Amino acid sequence: MLVLDKVQGENMLNNKKEFTINYGGKEVTLETGRFAKQADGSVFVTCGGTQVLVTVVSAHEVKEGQDFFPLMVDYKEKFPAVGKFLGGFMKREGRPSNEEILLMRMIDRPLRPLFPEGYLAETIVMAQVLSYDGENDPEVLAGLGTTAALAVSDIPFNGPVGFCKVGKIDGKLVLNPTREQMENTDIELVLAASKNAILMVEGEANEVSEEEMMEALKFGHESVKEFCDLLDTMAKEAGKPKRDWDQPVANEKLNEKMNDYKQDVLEALKINEKLQRSAAIKKLTKKVAGDIEANREAFGVSESDSAGATAYQGVDALVYSIMRNDILDNGNRIAGRALTEVREIETEVSVLSKPHGSSLFTRGETQVLATATVGGKEGEQMKDSIYGVSYDNFYLHYTFAPYSVGEARGYRGVGRREVGHGNLAERAIKKMMPDASEFPYTVRVNCEVTESNGSSSMGSVCSGSMALMDAGVPLKKPVAGVAMGLIKEGDKFQVLTDILGDEDHLGDMDFKVAGTTDGITAIQMDIKIEGITNEIFSKAMAQAKEGRLHILGEMAKTISAARPEFKEGVPQIKSTNIPKDKIGALIGPGGKNIKAIQEEYNVSIEITEEGMVKTLGTDPLVLDEVNNLIDMQINGPKIDAVYNAKVVTIKEYGAFVDIATGISGLVHVSEFADERVQDVNEYVSEGDMIDVKVLEIDRFGKIKLSAKAVKPLTKK
User: Fold this and answer.
1) Domains in the chain, start-ordered, CATH in brackets?
2) pTM greater than 0.90 (yes/no)
């Protein structure tokens, strides 16, 4: 028998340490030393019955030639966590859902700038939801577990960092509310922050003011500081010493030599057009590479180093320095645009013939073509997750094809970036969609980025909003968005309105704010530095409001409200109510009646448990006819009423006709014409449509009809 040794009274296989904090009125426990001990860091997070395991592993060697930091965050909601099977054919978790991808991005964004500059070892974060109690949000716990796992690992990381969710319920700010509480919130905000500054923001709101949003951000940040104190304690008591790694040494010779090319960069930055400016930078990079090859020693470049790669790094650093200094010192942006200036805007609607609604929104060199599709319940998007099955009747899809940036490569499907951008635009517009009780349709918006030079997600908000109004979808208010940038050195900073792609690449912040004339509906912030102060946030939001109102004004020149009616060919829904006990009769055995109506009239019919009958079709007259038909199915035909009927069976004594699906009657031979009819076949054939009048409905429900009472039939 194997006997395990004991160390300080503990099993060697289990060196568990627990740390507990009251976080938003709930006890959160972070445990390390029991699970996944071969990972560089692992933490098991528990709040109530929700439990998340997070692991971090970082390679000890950098791949040859690698010049970027390969950080990957994976988040997986395991269905056994709620004791259920995954829906569909596959019964094991596979490709991540959109919701899981969004959380991966949310965790990734604040972590990335906090790894030391020059650290390029491949690093993998894995968060798995192993138990979910239906109340405590696993998403926040996954973020907390990630930063805790980094804190106790040997991986170099400039923490501590904390995550939290903020809601505003009945006018009161709430930390880490339950999913049930979030159903009635005016603000839903996720943020990550260090003790000193906010690192990431993601959220949506019901048209809240900039002041309300700042209040929520400050509230969340103060709460996060307490968690950061706990991480300091964890690192001291359970953490590993941080590993040694080869920090890159600056090439001073290269930095000095690059000053010779300042004028070239200044001239390039004066060029307004993105592709021409890029071509000028590429030309300069090629020139520098040639100069390096001619005199490697002067540039401090060894024979084994790539002249091209070194030239790219040198030119990029020079562009970075010149552009940022010009903005900070002189307030001059690329091509001379003012700090608060929004690029020129052009807008169009109904640019496509067949889509229910379409728009083209162009802002500078960013352009988005949007379409809106209106339909019924069959268009709803089903989601199966650990939170249950749900159905979305509004969704937005965002596509970013390579041609939009002039790249010659094929489109390989939707990536994480596209999922994130589409979700942000969707949340911004969703708040202004009409209530389902007033507008019982399913709506899809598709945003195709046809040209890109900064903030295509906010362009999608604008174009999507206009396409919806063009389709006749009664948006409560038009929605627009703008992306804000930041250049910061020490205490000196400048906030930029409507940033270009280069200003995003070389800047410190990408802060997107969307909303209406009356408030914010969605917000998202990414940074490349170690935090944003309240002062910067306040200035950025005030500047964003000014930009948003300007864009809404430009959109209003083309369309400012929904068209009063749908375009021709757009499906419409007409509703009627029937008694619950009549639902079965309307449907018929095996769905016979309802299927026949749908096929005959080319409509789609939905019947709710409450007896609401919704008929979807493109012809309003047909919809009225179907509703009348449904009324007859439920209440029966009316004496003396005239119906257009179909001859289904011919007998010697008359013809049986259908006056509605499932409702038949007899036109006796004596009710054909004023003269005596010898042969019924001389007057009608099966399939003929004739007008008939209801003469009598006997106590057995048999219906007697007359053709001659409307218009006597004649021989063929």
Assistant:
1) 15-238 (3.30.230.70), 252-336 (1.10.10), 345-556 (3.30.230.70), 571-620 (3.30.1370.10), 636-716 (2.40.50.140)
2) no
